[in-house]
Structure formats: structure tokens, C-alpha cells
């Protein structure tokens, strides 16, 4: 019998670049729940204790905000992003060309 273990994206987020690409891919989907999940995975990859220390938030409030039932404020999300060394940017979405 083959032994398997659960897949955890956090194991592969071993650099700032990997975290930024992971979060950018989640944002591209325009799904708030997916972004919240990705932000939580990235925070776990870095270490919730370290993220809590850098954001000034408690570990418990971070876990709660970034859980599947959570709804982090923009302030919380921005603090976590800063602690992850990631910045959100805005770009214009090109309009589809009519045929």
C-alpha cells in the first residue's frame, strides 16, 4: 500500500517571491474566500507567531480572521501582507475587444 500525506501549499512557499506569486494567483480569481484562504496559507508558511508579532495582532485573532469562516478587515489583510513582504497593486483590466 502506498503511503500518502495531505497536500499543504504552505510547504512550498519558501521565499517572498513564491508567496507573492501564490497570492497574485489567488487574487486573479476574484474570489474573496480563495484570497483569504491563500493569505492564511502564506501566513502559516511564514509562521503565525512571527506574523502576529509583526502585525501587532494576536495569533488567535489571526487564526480566526484567516479561517474558512473568517472575514478579515482590509486593515488586517494589509498588515499580514506587509509582514509577508508583499504589496498589493492596482492595474487597469483591459477591455475585451469586440469582433
- If you compute it from the alpha carbons, what radius of gyration comes out, rounded to the nearest whole angstrom? 15 Å
Strand content: under 5%
Instruction: Report the biggest beta sheet as strand number plus sense, adding barrel if it closes.
Output: none
Query: Structural class, from helix and strand content?
Result: mainly alpha
Task: Compute the average pLDDT.
Answer: 93
State the order of secondary-structure elements, H for helix, E for strand.
Answer: HHHHH
Q: State the shape.
A: globular
Count of DSSP strands: 0
The number of helical segments is 5
The residue ranges in which pLDDT falls below 50 over 5 or more consecutive positions are none
Helix content: 40-55%
Gap from first CA to last CA: 55 Å
What does this structure look like?
- By secondary structure, the protein is mainly α.
- Helix content is 54%, strand content 0%.
- It has helices at 16-28, 32-46, 48-55, 59-65, 74-83.
Short structural description:
By secondary structure, the protein is mainly α.
Brief descriptors of the model:
mainly alpha, 5 helices, 99 residues
Topology (elements, then pairings):
Elements: H1 16-28, H2 32-46, H3 48-55, H4 59-65, H5 74-83
Amino acid at each position: 500500500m502506498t503511503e500518502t500525506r495531505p497536500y499543504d501549499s504552505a510547504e512550498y512557499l519558501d521565499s517572498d517571491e513564491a508567496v507573492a506569486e501564490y497570492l497574485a494567483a489567488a487574487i486573479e480569481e476574484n474570489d474573496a474566500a480563495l484570497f483569504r484562504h491563500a493569505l492564511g496559507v502564506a501566513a502559516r508558511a511564514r509562521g503565525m507567531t512571527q506574523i502576529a508579532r509583526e502585525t501587532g495582532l494576536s495569533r488567535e485573532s489571526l487564526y480566526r480572521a484567516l479561517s474558512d469562516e473568517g472575514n478579515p478587515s482590509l486593515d488586517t489583510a494589509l498588515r499580514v501582507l506587509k509582514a509577508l513582504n508583499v504589496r498589493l497593486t492596482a492595474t487597469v483590466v483591459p477591455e475585451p475587444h469586440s469582433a
